[in-house]
Write the structure tokens for this entry.
Amino acid sequence: MALGCGGTLGKVFLILINIIFFLLGLGLLIVGALMKANIKIVNDEVKPVLNSITVSSYKLGDLADNLSVVFIVIGVFIFIVAGLGLFGACCQNRCMLVTYAILVLLLLIVKVVAIALWFTMQGEVEDKVKSEMLKSLTAHFTDDSLSNGDEISKSWNYMFLTLDCCAVNAVTGISNDFDQTPWCTQAGKTCNGGSAQLPGTCCVGVDANTYTSAPAACKTAVSGYNTMGCYDALKAEIETYSTPVIGVGITILVIELLAVIFAFVICKQTGEEVVGGVKMALQCGGKVGQVFLVVINIIFSLMGLGLLIAGALALSDIGNVNTDHVKPLLDTIEVGSFQVGSMANNLSILFIVIGVFIMIVSGLGLFGACCQNKCMLVVYAVLVLILLLMKIVIIALWFTMKDKVESEIKAKLVTALNNNYKDDTITNSNSVSNAWNYMFMTLDCCAVNPVKGTTNDFDITAWCTTAPGSCQATSSEVPKTCCLGVTESTYSSAPATCHQNVDSGTYNSKGCYDALKDKILSMSPSIIGVSITIILLEILAVIFAFLVCSQAGDRTSGLSDVARSY
């Protein structure tokens, strides 16, 4: 049934609109990814203080992280829905267009409800967050140091340094938010003793290495301190993304309304997919293929979701290793032109992208089989074949280059240790040396190769060959950060039996190469299992897609059969 003028116009607009949807969904996904990667308030040092602040039952640190995840999920959803609209309009398929219109309406309703709730509760939420921040500072700020006090107190100091802010409310003089904190009310503290009114971490231009020498004028709240309160700094950091998000969001809302209208216009004018009163029926093999294709693509959707989740878990787990402290070290190690720090993240992101792609392709196969749509089934089969070939190439490359890559990474790690390890502290001016010490504590490892005794990988590092290294002075044979159970706060008091005598059972016996490899490969069984299952299903899917295509036939042949019957 041919489309009328309005339907043709609607078809053209719907195709154009859903191409724009693709781009806007991708834009929202990228904004969310940038937020996830770049919101510096949610790093490992600051997160404890944000998680001490709760809004209803939600922790602020997790909420800030999850906000970016919400944008990514919405972007992916829009991307998928746009595919339904695009192929539905191209093929004039009522089944797809109705599904598309319903999903767009649901998405539109969800957005309207979310916007209404935000404007209704915005003031209440902001007041609650500010109040909880002040409670956290008052209860937990015990010292203006990064090495003393509890984790939340240290997180406050990291926040002051990271966001260039001070206290919760803006500091205007010696009377400020710190007056009721343990730092100012407990004996023995610098504020209680009258030698400081503000932490050294609040001073302008200081960092983790220089805050202890902050000028007195700053610490007595006279001059040279960060005048912005951390509530306003935190709010400003989040709001830096508001303009692009609002712009993209409003544009999507307008396009969604147009898309629903045009989808129903095309549906109305398309009518039933019948030619001359006859609808092409599948033969026995085609029917079996159709059932299998529907079942396979439901499984595909679940497997794609599983691969996406496995990649997200790997990204989260690797994120525990690849922090701002450790990344300088990993980025000194290059394989070809790739930095290991970036590769560790990108590998898990690759799994996520493949998972999303599989879900999109399975949607094409599912709807193509249900609606017996040759256009969709051919596109689906081609995409599955491309995906299958890509996986085979990647697997072949990995098995071909695996040993070479692993050997090169290990050699680069040893070189990085020899060239950059200066001291067994986390406050050295060399960030790569600090990163090694953070890695020892984070991964519970020591050196690159396993330490067997006093002769080890550290022997030719600057720490052991030049003064004033404690190894060169023979007071240590392995770093204190290699000792069992030490943390950022306790490593300096590690027992001599560990760092000096290197007694078995007192230090981390696993080398950092093996520890890093184990961390990255910890997700491999689930990823390999899911991938093999998907490859087998892809082969079956291509076979059944072409079988259903061959039996669906052409509508013109159906018309000829009807004509001959007369």
